[in-house]
Amino acid sequence: ARELTDRQIYFRDRDRNGRPTVRHDAKASTASHHVGLAAGSSPQQTAGSSHHRRGSGSGSGSETGTAPQYAPARMIEQGVDEILHLKMLESIVDSETPSTIVLATGDAAQAEYSPGFMAMVERALKKGWKVELVSWSKNISGMYRKPEWLATWGSMFRVVFLDDYAEELLEM
User: Fold this and answer.
1) Burial letters for 4-15: b for 16+ Cβ neighbours within 10 Å, e otherwise?
2) 39-85, pLDDT tens digit by residue?
3) pLDDT of 124-140, one tens digit each?
C-alpha cells in the first residue's frame, strides 16, 4: 500500500482545466488521508501486480470493479515505526560488538505494540552502543533533551540537529 502524494491528491481533486472539483461521495473527504488497497489484497499483492487493477488480468473477478478499502495513514506510519523498532533490536542482538546507531527521528512516544524509539535507544545504550539521533530541532521530543537523561549517557548519546545543515539540504 502506498500513500497518495500531495501532488496526486492535488490533481485528483481537479478537473482537466485545473479547477477544483466537487466530490459528492462519502469517501471523498477522507480519501486524501488514507492509503488504498484493493479489496481482499495485501499491500505486497497490490504493489507490484497488475491483476488487481480494474479491468486487467483474468482472475475470478471478485476484485474487479470493487472500490478500494482505505487504511488510515496514521496506521501505516505506526506499522513502519514498529518495523524499525524490530530492525533496531535485530541489529543490537545480532552484532557481536556494539557500534553506532544513527536514528533519524525525534519521536519518543510509545507505539501500539512496542515501547517506542526512546525505549529502543535506551536498550542500545545499555548494551554499549553509541546512538546519534538526527532530527529537526522543532520535531524532537523533550524526552531526548532532559538534562538527567543526557547526563546518564554522556558521550554515548548525541543529538545532531538538521537545522545546522538546512542550507546544504535545501540546495539539493
Assistant:
1) beeeeeeeeeee
2) 444 444 444 444 444 444 444 445 556 666 666 666 666 777 788 88
3) 999 999 999 999 999 99
Cβ proximity of 85 and 121 under 8 Å: no
Please answer whether residues 64 and 41 qualify as being in contact, where contact means their C-beta atoms are separated by less than 8 angstroms: no
Instruction: Return the SS3 of 84.
Output: helix
d(CA 41, CA 68): 10
**Residue 123, SS3 per DSSP:** helix
What residue numbers bound the domain in which 98 lies? 75-171
CA distance 118 to 144: 8
Per the structure, the count of domains in the chain is 2
